[in-house]
Amino acid sequence: MSERDSLGVSISAREIYDQIVGLRDDVRGLTQTQTTTAAELADHENRLRAIERWRYAAPLAGVSALGAIVAEAIRVTGKA
């Protein structure tokens, strides 16, 4: 009696085929998930870059606005 016979396990070609088909479907699902995740990551990256641009531009805009207010105050008080 061989070792295979003593274990009492027999796997048919159909069972192997069914498992491979299931594995293929799993891989396709993971590929789709990875594609969706990559698109979401790119979108988040773009949003973060836009926020960073705004964050660094805001102080410059504030200084410019303050300078305009001071220049206007000087112009108004200089005429009075």
Automatic annotation (TrEMBL):
This is Uncharacterized protein. It comes from Streptomyces luteoverticillatus.
